[in-house]
Amino acid sequence: INPHIALAHSAKAGALGRLAAKWASVPIIVYTPHAFPFLMGVAVSRRIAFAMIERMLGYITSALIAVSHSERGVALHERIISEDKVHVIENGIDVHRIHFDANARTLWRKRWQVPDDAFVIGCVADFRVQKGHEDLIRCIPLVLKQIKPATFVLVGRGEREAHLRQLCADLDVTDHVIFETDICDDWSIYSAFDVYALPSLWEGLPYTPLEAMACKVPVVVTDVVGNRDVVAPPIGGANGEWRAGLLVPPRNPHALARAIITLWEHEELRHRLSECGRRLVEKHFNVDRMVRQMEHLYEQLWSGMVQY
């Protein structure tokens, strides 16, 4: 096999893949970080080391695909690679397949034995530190003071499940939390939520808020790279016409609780954000657009229109 283009994704595989491609004399090497390793809550010494490695590998990289505009900003701020080699191609989903399903909403809520008047806050994410489940659980007692029928559904799997269950017990909120670990890849589950929350500590550009938005569920996400691009993308409309959710500071359960309570209190706001979210994924975060942009970049690289 003598490939013309090598594609390397994420931190470790991205580094090893680019080195292997260089050794194999692959003429075009494309890298997509999906969140730079020096943003992943590491110690200062490791952050510096990871940034240096990324800069060195930048010399053998033909193009860097940033999955969000804020990730592009990080690449330029940290001088990872020259500006002309950075291309923003945001993640996209199949908006024709993923949509609100009223029947699914009823079925999921019956499965969980959730009352009709329950206000359901959902989170779909692997149980790992990155996704900030601890902050979501710590906000639950604050939410329950204002929203008595609140129910939190955590959809996912992972090694931190036991720890998260214990935290729920310690905070005496177990009766208000459902761990859905059997079915984790069914997009219809979003239709059962009234609000979607993702309190990530770092991201590239996450898919699950996009899927929630496609199902007309308003989202609350932390103000980190990638997340902020989902709810307030830089595509014009400074007056907020494209705002599809609420941003809160990371590692801040109080702010997260306030945002959830705000959405519970203001039905009109929930409706406006949910409608905007659906329009936004149809226009901006759809998989067809993503594929067209990828094809165009590969054609440019191969034809030599983009210098490397």
Secondary-structure blueprint:
Elements: E1 5-9, H1 11-23, E2 28-32, H2 44-58, E3 63-66, H3 69-77, E4 86-88, H4 102-112, E5 119-124, H5 133-144, E6 150-155, H6 161-170, E7 177-180, E8 195-198, H7 208-214, E9 219-222, H8 227-231, E10 245-248, H9 253-265, H10 267-283, H11 287-303
Parallel strand pairs: 1-2, 2-3, 3-4, 5-6, 5-8, 6-7, 8-9, 9-10
Helix pairs in contact: 5-9, 7-10
Feature tags:
Rossmann fold, alpha/beta, six-stranded parallel beta sheet, four-stranded parallel beta sheet, 308 residues, globular
Description of the structure:
The structure is a single chain. This protein has 2 domains: 5-92 and 287-303, Rossmann fold; 102-283, Rossmann fold, CATH 3.40.50.2000. Strand 3, helix 3 and strand 4 (86-88) form a beta-alpha-beta unit. The strands form 2 sheets. The chain has a 6-stranded parallel beta sheet with strand order 7-6-5-8-9-10, with helices on both faces. The model has no long low-confidence stretch (mean pLDDT 94). Helix 5 packs across helix 9. Helices cover 42% and strands 15% of the residues. The protein has 308 residues and is α/β, with parallel strands linked by helices. The chain contains 11 helices and 10 strands.
If helices are DSSP runs of H or I spanning 4 or more residues, what is the number of helices?
11
- Looking at CATH, the homologous superfamily of the largest domain is Glycogen Phosphorylase B
Which CATH first-tier class of the largest domain would you pick?
Alpha Beta
Structural class: alpha/beta
Major β-sheet, in short?
6 strands, parallel
What do we call the CATH topology of the largest domain? Answer: Rossmann fold
Secondary-structure element string: EHEHEHEHEHEHEEHEHEHHH
Number of domains: 2
In spatial order, strands of the major sheet run 7-6-5-8-9-10
CATH architecture of the largest domain: 3-Layer(aba) Sandwich
Number of strands: 10
Mean pLDDT level: 94
**DSSP strand (E) fraction?**
5-15%
Poorly predicted sequence stretches spanning 5 or more consecutive residues = none
Radius of gyration: 20 Å
C-alpha geometry: globular
N/C terminus separation: 23 Å
**Helix percent band:** 40-55%
